[in-house]
Amino acid sequence: MKNQILFLITFILLSCSKRQENFDLYISNSNYELNLKTGDFKINWYNDYKDKIELSKNEKNQIRKLIFKYNVDTFKGEKNVFGEEPLIMPNFNDKFTLAIDNKIESEISISTQVNLEKSKLNKIDTDIYNFKTEIFKLLSENKDFERNMDTVKIANKKIKRLFL
């Protein structure tokens, strides 16, 4: 009986330690790139604009909790979220790239045309959509992120870009 309990405790500890890996989460779209671990924010098409977003320890912990809550750490490879309705040209504007121990594990692209009420998403796609929503809600409360989003808006007004 003692061996079984010891085995069970060892298994639980090993399972928990696997979830403590070193995560890098990147957000990118046609306007900017953001590394949530380092805080590096870039707008490559706007005079190679670079800035830093300072995330508090609490914000970093909340991001980590969201990764686990929505099982984003378990995805491998590419994943596109776009719903069941027919789209002629889906717009995969927001892309989340998760690297674990400096190795890219997954790239998740989410169409801006997804509507949670109308898109008929499956459970995994709904979790990804909710992950995106909660990440941006968290970031919108950060002053540095909001300042940089204002810069993106100004840059879009100053420089008209054509997407084909």
Automatic annotation (TrEMBL):
<protein>
    <recommendedName>
        <fullName>Lipoprotein</fullName>
    </recommendedName>
</protein>
